[in-house]
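[PROTEIN RECORD]
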Amino acid sequence: MEVGLVPGDWRNSCGISLCLERCVQFWEERFASFFQVEHLYLEILRDLSIYALGLQ
């Protein structure tokens, strides 16, 4: 009897690459959201600084 990986087993190469692909996609989406929020925060901070300094 041969012991090996069965189709659909998470340890097979296809399953591992799919898992890694999903993991990468998950973190890409999180970082994209983070950078969008950071960009908006910096714009608001800039606008508040301009207002506080009376440079309008």
The chain has one domain: 9-56. Residues 9-56 form one domain. Residues 13-53 form the longest helix (41 residues).
